[in-house]
Amino acid sequence: MCLDHDLMGMVAAQRLDEARAEAARQRLIADLRPPLNVRLGHALIRLGRRLAAGAATHAQPSMT
Q1: Rg of the Cα trace of the chain?
Q2: What is the DSSP letter of 59?
Q3: What CA–CA distances, in Å, run from 24 to 9, 12, 33, 49, 57?
Q4: Could you give the CA distance from residue 29 to residue 22 in angstroms, rounded to a whole number?
């Protein structure tokens, strides 16, 4: 019976170690990515540039 408890303790410790390693990996990945507001700002800038470039190519010359 003691062997079963020791084995369960080893399995639990191994799972805890794996969970901690995964959490550390996730934190590292999250730290590398810029915050959401920065990513959103960059996306809006790219969208604005694309719209401005499209408007410039579709603009008709004025008839003066």
Answers
A1: 28
A2: P
A3: 22, 18, 15, 38, 49
A4: 11
pLDDT along the chain (64 residues), means of 10: 84 97 94 91 96 78 61
* CA–CA distance, 21 with 10 (Å, rounded to integer): 16
Beta strands, E only, 2-59: none
pTM for the full model? 0.50
Angle at 28 between CA 24 and CA 31, to 5 degrees: 135
Whose structure tokens read 């959490």? Answer: 23
Predicted confidence (pLDDT) per residue in 9-24, tens digit: 999 999 999 999 999 9
